[in-house]
Amino acid sequence: MNINTLVKKLHIIxxxxxxxxxxxxxxxxxxTLEDLLEIKENNLQLPDVGKIELKAKRIDSxxxxxxxxxxxxxxxVNRILFEKYKYRDKEGKYNLHSTVCGSRxxxxxxxxxxxxxxxxxxxxxxxxxxxPLSIFDDVLKSKSNKxxxxxxxxxxxxxxxSEKFHYSEAYLLSGLNSKKFxxxxxxxxxxxxxxxxxxxxxxxxGRYHDHGTGFRINKKDFLQLFDHYKKLI
Length: 233
What we know:
The protein is α+β, with helices and mostly antiparallel strands and 233 residues long. It contains six helices and 15 strands.
C-alpha cells in the first residue's frame, strides 16, 4: 500500500459514517480503524513514506482533544485537594471543578508550571501535586518519526460495545517540537481540567468520586505542536 492507496481507503472509511466499535474499552477506536484499514496492530509501513505509527483519538465537542487523563501524584493527592478546595454546587453537593492553566493563577488559587520533567500544580495550600511529562508519551511520541493521526467523532456510551466512531479527519505528522509543547502549556492552549465530586445516587451516594483529571487542547493547536503536518482527508 502506498500513500495514495491509504488516502483512498481513509476516504472510503469516512464516507461510511458512524461505525460500531470492534472492541470495547479505550482501545476500541484504534482496533476498529486497524481492522478497516486491514493492517495489523500498529504495523503500517508505506514504501513512499516509511514506517508510520497509527494513532486514533476521540474528538469532543468544540473540536477539543483530550491528550491524556491522569490524576496527579503522589497517589491520593486529589482527595487532599478536594478536601482543601471543595465547594457546594446548586444542589448542595460538594464539588471541585477547576480548569487550570499555565499563564495565571485561577480563582481557586491553582496554576500549573513546568519544571524539569514534571508538570507541577501550584496551590495556595502548598500541597505537593504533579504529573510526570511521560503521561503524554502515548499521544505525543512515536516509535517511528511519523504519526498518522485520525480524529473521530463518537456517539453511544464511551468504551462500551455500543460506541460508534466516525473517522472524519486524518493527518500525517512528524517532528514533535518540545518547545512548542511547553509553550502550549504556558500560553493556556493546553489546559488541565480537574473534575472531582460525589456520587449523586446509588449505593455510593454522597461518597467521594474522582471523575479523572483531563488534559485538553484544541485540535488545531495540537497539530501545531509538530514541525510538519499534512492533512490527508
